[in-house]
């Protein structure tokens, strides 16, 4: 059986939001919990990455979402998960069709929001080496470098960067 690990990336500085956006409330629920709830139906287990109470970024904090993905891949591979489905805590609304499209494929990512991706857990070591020597810390650049398939969500994926984005949801 293919075991799937879900990972909510929830580190970063939230500088545009002005406070920790992971714990900002939308409709009475923390964004972090909403993102986790989006992964739950698809995954055998879900972890939070990059904050207290979750797993720590690799190789160290402060490298952006790719450091969170590296930690999730490593965590998954060492616990027998074949693949990892990642989302960021600032994506409170993702249509189920997007998850279906990602999971139908092998390595794939959402063009509109590349942190939303489906990755082989075995790529953890490759990603750590990419973080050390690669040209960019962009998730999209890494996804392209491994040949992951771009998935077009066909609808805008809401992404909360500022308090106004939250109000506009
Ligand atoms: N684990 C982890 N998650 C991160 C990191 N940086 C950003 N994220 C998450 O990735 C998503 C996108 O992050 P951004 O909004 O681009 O960056 P940010 O630092 O959170 O916010 P800004 O300071 O406004 O750019 C957010 O949900 C963050 O929680 C990181 O270094 N580690």
Write the layout of secondary structure elements.
Blueprint: E1 4-9, E2 25-26, E3 29-30, H1 31-39, E4 45-49, H2 65-78, E5 83-88, H3 96-104, E6 108-110, E7 113-120, H4 124-133, H5 139-145, E8 149-151, H6 163-167
Parallel strand pairs: 1-4, 1-5, 6-8
Antiparallel strand pairs: 2-3, 5-7, 6-7
Helix pairs in contact: 2-4
This protein binds guanosine-5'-triphosphate.
CATH architecture: Alpha-Beta Complex
**Distance from first to last alpha carbon:** 37 Å
Q: Return the CATH topology.
A: Spore Coat Polysaccharide Biosynthesis Protein SpsA, Chain A
| Total of helices | 6
Give the cofactors and ligands: guanosine-5'-triphosphate
> Please, what is the CATH homologous superfamily?
Spore Coat Polysaccharide Biosynthesis Protein SpsA, Chain A
- Taking all Cα atoms into account, the compactness measure Rg is 15 Å
What is the percent of helical residues?
25-40%
Using DSSP, what is the number of strands? Answer: 8
Note the beta-strand portion: 15-25%
Secondary structure class reads alpha/beta
Globally, the shape reads globular
List SSEs in N-to-C order: EEEHEHEHEEHHEH
- What's the main sheet like? 6 strands, mixed
Total separate domains: 1
